[in-house]
């Protein structure tokens, strides 16, 4: 089974959760974020932010690939560094915006094409 780490802005909590469900149903082991500070209004210290960043790189180390949650093509500076790190370490990089996940108008849930 492939291990996939989700990467992207913490403002996309909903999309992280939907991608996690989708990939898990496809038989993947999914590693995600513990905190969505931008979505949930959580205040973190500079030290915590640095720790979370380091932990996320270790998650990438454990993975076969990363799945970038790039809603409307948005990739922030931290996510860009994670993508570069993944590529430098021979990881496959896939993107939400280019995946088979789409928004369904009626339920606003992600479905398979």
Structure characterization notes:
This protein is α/β, with parallel strands linked by helices and 113 residues long. The chain has one domain: 3-Layer(aba) Sandwich (Rossmann fold), CATH 3.40.50. The chain contains four helices and six strands. A four-stranded parallel β-sheet has the order 2-1-3-4, sandwiched between helices. A hairpin with a 6-residue loop joins strand 5 and strand 6. Helix 3 (46-62) runs parallel beside helix 4. The protein is globular and about 35 Å long.
List the helices and strands and how they pair.
Blueprint: E1 3-8, H1 13-25, E2 29-31, H2 37-40, H3 46-62, E3 65-69, H4 77-88, E4 92-95, E5 101-103, E6 110-112
Parallel strand pairs: 1-2, 1-3, 3-4
Antiparallel strand pairs: 5-6
Task: Provide a compact summary of the structure.
This protein is of the alpha/beta class and 113 residues long.
Structural key phrases:
alpha/beta, 113 residues, Rossmann fold
Give the assembly state of these chains. single chain
Structural class: alpha/beta
Residue runs with pLDDT of under 50 for 5 or more positions: none
Structure annotation, total helices: 4
| Name of the level-1 CATH class | Alpha Beta
Largest sheet: 4 strands, parallel
Write down the CATH topology: Rossmann fold
Which sequence of strands runs across the widest sheet? 2-1-3-4
Radius of gyration: 14 Å
> Overall 3D geometry?
globular
Mean pLDDT: 87
Strand segment count: 6
Tell me roughly what share of residues is in helical segments: 40-55%
Termini separation: 23 Å
Overall tally of domains: 1
- The ordered string of helix (H) and strand (E) elements is EHEHHEHEEE
**Assigned CATH architecture:** 3-Layer(aba) Sandwich
